[in-house]
Structures are given as structure tokens and as C-alpha cells.
């Protein structure tokens, strides 16, 4: 994120890394859920990466807390083994050909493990007696523990901020399962903590390509003047996955694609692409701008929502069993593994511009992107080399796995005739930036240690996002339409194509891109 923002929040007496960015302030990171997947797969590798970048302070400690029998030596040894394993798997989220011994030793020496029940105030009080100064509590635990763990922290006196020191708590989605449960969760935790002590993670905001959307829109002059209803015809937001429900049936059966992806990850993409320029890049200005956007979403109509569920098929050459035949899934499950919907944003900039969003599992390709489709020119001066009129101009924000921006426009096909073809100009990250190991949590962790909440969700952001999808959830509570089956390895159910065809439009293909 921009240097100016970082230096505003990091302590000014902290050393500056070779990159010019200041290291985080001295602090203790307490991880609840030390044995969990999030800690192992993402948090510890992200801490390692931050140390490689010189962004962790010398006076830094990590205390891992979990209920499992373990010792500091055991925990360190397990994490050391895990880091070594990462070097053997180039497909791992965290892959580096070699672990830097000095860096890992530095971090490992700062790790300690405490076996405790993190919902027990007495146990937390004991842990607290060993900590002074700044503390970040990272709740890398299932959501049902958020409220009890925060309550216990409060009872143990660990949420009070002595002498200008900070006490922060990080939680990660799901923040409730609907509007009411999100409100309940917020009111529980806000009874113990002040809003500025809470850092709610949406890991999509940890992605460089998502952070880049604001840089692209508000750090240049060539995009923003055309970024509105006069020039833009529609915007399509896609998060397609090839993964299936895998071993997550217990969670997924009760959740489904809408709750899992829409009011959180897809709405973050929506906010980045559609929000008004904030008055400054200060966290509250950015979050308020997002909030205004969420408040402008019109109630979603039931006929503008398509639910799908994958049937058996083949994904990337591998056979996939139907969702309903997956372990832990009810044989008559009507949970959606795909959802598409049309949203309307009622403000001066976007009135009349549809936002089509879709996400699904077991699809043909893994792809997250935003396609901004422009209007066609007011008159057709040139014939097209295409059978029909040339496709409209598109700006495509390639979020993953391809990272970059693609601009599609018409150019004259060489030859004696004046005929237009659709061509592309591509910005790709590897062409401009050295690839640094990054699991997507480095910036989030660093920002939280520095107290910069720009990339985190405020209570009102969460509640307004849920209230935008509430009409859909309310309709489903009264009786769901059965999900339309789609073949695993396809682009989703036919109903999603009809949703756009009704408006005379079509989805941008979910094709692999380079
Ligand atoms: C998670 C969802 O929040 O995001 C998963 O629970 C989904 O179902 C994942 O697969 C997608 O994130 P990413 O970063 O892998 O695209």
C-alpha cells in the first residue's frame, strides 16, 4: 500500500527496511487457534515474509494458544517442519525454494506455546500476566468462538489499553450468517471492545490485485472520467473456482455460495470498482466511501438471482462426483454451490448500470476478475472484421490467477480495407514487478500491527452488506427454489446465461487467460 499511508501509522521511531517502509511497532501477537489451518498455512508464513522484508520489530513475540497438548518446543518443531514442506510444493500458497535459516531462527525463537482454553478468563488472565505493552489477539478460530473469546478477554482485563499501548483483536469471516446474526455478533464484541480495536479481515482485500483497483482508479486520470453511466454499459464480477466442497461439507451445507462469497468477497470487489473517491486515503474515509456504496444497492429482486448446484462432471480432466454425493452432504441437499445475481446501485454515477455477479465451485476454470464493459460508439464508422458488430471496449481487472489489467479495444486489421478487430493491451504483474513470496496476509498483518484499518471491515460495512442480500435470504427462508444443476467443469447453470440474455447481454467467458 502507498508509503504515505504506512508512515502515518507505523511508529516513527521504528527502523526503516531497505524498501523504505518502517517496521511495525514493538508488540506481542497472541494467536488463538495455534494448531489451526489458518495459523499454519497463512499466518506463520506471512510473518516469515514480513521478517524477510524487514517489517517486524526486534521486540516482537508470538504466543500461540490452543487446547491441544503441546509445548513451545513441539509447536516450533511442527511449524519448522511445515515451513520445510512448503519448499517441496511449488503449488502451495506459500512457496519458496529455500527457507532463510537466519530469518526462520529469528522468528522461531520468538514463538511460544501455551495450552489453554481461550474462552476461560482465568486462563487468559494468567497469560496476560506474562505480557505487557502492545498486543494483537488474532482469533484464528471458528466463528462460534468469537463472542466467547472476546468476552473472556474483556473479563481478563486484556482489552484495556494501558498508557497509550494498544490492544487489538482480529477476526475473520464469517461475521454472522445473515443480518440479524451479524448485528448480534457486532453488539457482543462492541460491548467489550471499541470499534477501533477490532480488525475484521476479508482476505480478498489482502490480494495485491484488489488493492490495485483503487490505485488504478484514483491514482490515474485516464480511467475515472469515463467511469460512470455515460460510458459504462455493465460491470461483471466473477469469482469462479475449480475446487469442490472437498472436506468442508459441515460448513458448506449450512452456508452455500451466497453467504460464503457474496456479501463479503464479491462485495469487496464491488466496492473497489464502484465506490466514490474518498476524501483522503485515511482508513475512515475509505471505509465511509464503501459504506455509502453499500447503502446505495437497491433491494435485490428474487427473479434477479440464480442458484445452481454442481452435478457430476469433469474438472480439468479429473472426474468430480456430484455435490449431493459428496461426503457429509445430504442426498437431497438444496444448498447452492453457485449463485449469480444482478445488482443495481442507485446513485448519480451508476443508476441504470447493471452489476452482474457470479461465483461457483467445480467450474471449468479458476478465475476472479471484474469486467467493465463500455457502451458502443454512437455511430458505426468502420465495418467490423467480426461477423457481428465489434465487441464493446472492456477494461478487465484480472484478480487471479492471472494478475493484471487487460484493456480490450478495436484496432484496424492490416490490409487494404478499413476493418476493426478486437485487440488487447495487457499489463501483467510479472512483467513489471519481481515476484515476492506472498500468501495474501502480509499486508493485512502488517497493517493491523500498525493500526491501519483501511483494509478491514467496519461494523456498519458488514451489516449493510448483509442487509443488501437480506431480501434474497428472506425469500429463501420462506421457500427456496431448487438449485439448477450444472455439470461440474462447466461455466455454471443455463439460468445464469438467461439472466443476462434477458437484458440483451452475455457473460464474459470463464476461460483460462495468460
Ligand atoms: C473463502 C471461502 O472465504 O474464500 C471459500 O470460504 C473460497 O469457499 C475462498 O474457496 C476463496 O478464496 P481464494 O483466495 O482462494 O480465491
Question: Could you explain how this protein is built, in words?
Answer:
α9 (249-274) packs across α10 and α9 (249-274) packs across α13 (459-478). The model is unreliable at 1-10 (pLDDT under 50). The radius of gyration is 24 Å and the shape is globular. The protein has two domains: 6-172, NAD(P)-binding Rossmann-like Domain (Rossmann fold); 205-501, Dihydrodipicolinate Reductase, domain 2. Helix content is 33%, strand content 21%. It has helices at residues 3-9, 37-52, 72-86, 101-109, 121-128, 146-155, 179-190, 208-218, 249-274, 283-295, 429-432, 442-450, 459-478, 494-501, and strands spanning 27-32, 60-66, 111-115, 135-139, 167-172, 198-201, 232-240, 305-311, 313-315, 318-320, 338-344, 354-360, 367-374, 394-400, 404-412, 420-428, 456-457, 484-487. The longest helix has 26 residues, at 249-274. The strands form three sheets. A nine-stranded mixed beta sheet has the order 16-15-14-13-7-12-11-8-18, with helices on both faces. It has 514 residues and is an alpha/beta fold. The protein binds 6-O-phosphono-beta-D-glucopyranose.
Amino acid at each position: 500500500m502507498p508509503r504515505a499511508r504506512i508512515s502515518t501509522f507505523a511508529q516513527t521511531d521504528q527502523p526503516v527496511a531497505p524498501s523504505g517502509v518502517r517496521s511495525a511497532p514493538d508488540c506481542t501477537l497472541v494467536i488463538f487457534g495455534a494448531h489451526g489451518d489458518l495459523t499454519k498455512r497463512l499466518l506463520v508464513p506471512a510473518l516469515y515474509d514480513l521478517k524477510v522484508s524487514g517489517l517486524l520489530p526486534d521486540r516482537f513475540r508470538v504466543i500461540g494458544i490452543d487446547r491441544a497438548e503441546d509445548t513451545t518446543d513441539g509447536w516450533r518443531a511442527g511449524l519448522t517442519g511445515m515451513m520445510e514442506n512448503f519448499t517441496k510444493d511449488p503449488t502451495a500458497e506459500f512457496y519458496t525454494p529455500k527457507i532463510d535459516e537466519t530469518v526462520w531462527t529469528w522468528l522461531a525463537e520468538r514463538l511460544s506455546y501455551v495450552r489453554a482454553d481461550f474462552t476461560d478468563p482465568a486462563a487468559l488472565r494468567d497469560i496476560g500476566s506474562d505480557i505487557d505493552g502492545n498486543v494483537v489477539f488474532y482469533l484464528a478460530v471458528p466463528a462460534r468462538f468469537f463472542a466467547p473469546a472476546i468476552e473472556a478477554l474483556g473479563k481478563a482485563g486484556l482489552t484495556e489499553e494501558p498508557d497509550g499501548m494498544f490492544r487489538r483483536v482480529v477476526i475473520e469471516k464469517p461475521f454472522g450468517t445473515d443480518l440479524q446474526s451479524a448485528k448480534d455478533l457486532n453488539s457482543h464484541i462492541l460491548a467489550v471492545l471499541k470499534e477501533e480495536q477490532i480488525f475484521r479481515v476479508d482476505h480478498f482485500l489482502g490480494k495485491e490485485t484488489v488493492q490495485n483497483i483503487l490505485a488504478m482508479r484514483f491514482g490515474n486520470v485516464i480511467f475515472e472520467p469515463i467511469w460512470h453511466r455515460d460510458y459504462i454499459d455493465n460491470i461483471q464480477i466473477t469469482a469462479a473456482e475449480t475446487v469442490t466442497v472437498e472436506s468442508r461439507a459441515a460448513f458448506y451445507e449450512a452456508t452455500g455460495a451466497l453467504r460464503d462469497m457474496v456479501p463479503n468477497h464479491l462485495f469487496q470487489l464491488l466496492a473497489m470498482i464502484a465506490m466514490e473517491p474518498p476524501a483522503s486515503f485515511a482508513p475512515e474515509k475509505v471505509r465511509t466511501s464503501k459504506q455509502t456504496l453499500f447503502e446505495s444497492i437497491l433491494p435485490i429482486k428474487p427473479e434477479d438471482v440464480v442458484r445452481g448446484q454442481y452435478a457430476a462432471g469433469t474438472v480439468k480432466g479429473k472426474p468430480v462426483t456430484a455435490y449431493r454425493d459428496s461426503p457429509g452432504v445430504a442426498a437431497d441437499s438444496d444448498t447452492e454451490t453457485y449463485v449469480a445475481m444482478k445488482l443495481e446501485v442507485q446513485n448519480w454515477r451508476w443508476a441504470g448500470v447493471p452489476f452482474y455477479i457470479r461465483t461457483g465451485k467445480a467450474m471449468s476454470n479458476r478465475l476472479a476478475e471484474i469486467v467493465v464493459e463500455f457502451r458502443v460508439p454512437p455511430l458505426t464508422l468502420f465495418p467490423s472484421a467480426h461477423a457481428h458488430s465489434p465487441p464493446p471496449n472492456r477494461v478487465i481487472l484480472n484478480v487471479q490467477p492471472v494478475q493484471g489489467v487487460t484493456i480490450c479495444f478495436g484496432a484496424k486489421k492490416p490490409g487494404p480495407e478499413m476493418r476493426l478487430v478486437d485487440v488487447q493491451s495487457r499489463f501483467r504483474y510479472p512483467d513489471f514487478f519481481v515476484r515476492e513470496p506472498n500468501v495474501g496476509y502480509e499486508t493485512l498483518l502488517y497493517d493491523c500491527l500498525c493500526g491501519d484499518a483501511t483494509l478491514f471491515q467496519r461494523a456498519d460495512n458488514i451489516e449493510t452488506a448483509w442487509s443488501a442480500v437480506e431480501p434474497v435470504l428472506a425469500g429463501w427462508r420462506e421457500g427456496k427454489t431448487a438449485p439448477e444443476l450444472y455439470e461440474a467443469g462447466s461455466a455454471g447453470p443455463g439460468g445464469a446465461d438467461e439472466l443476462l440474455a434477458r437484458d440483451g447481454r452475455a457473460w464474459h467467458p470463464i476461460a483460462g487467460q495468460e
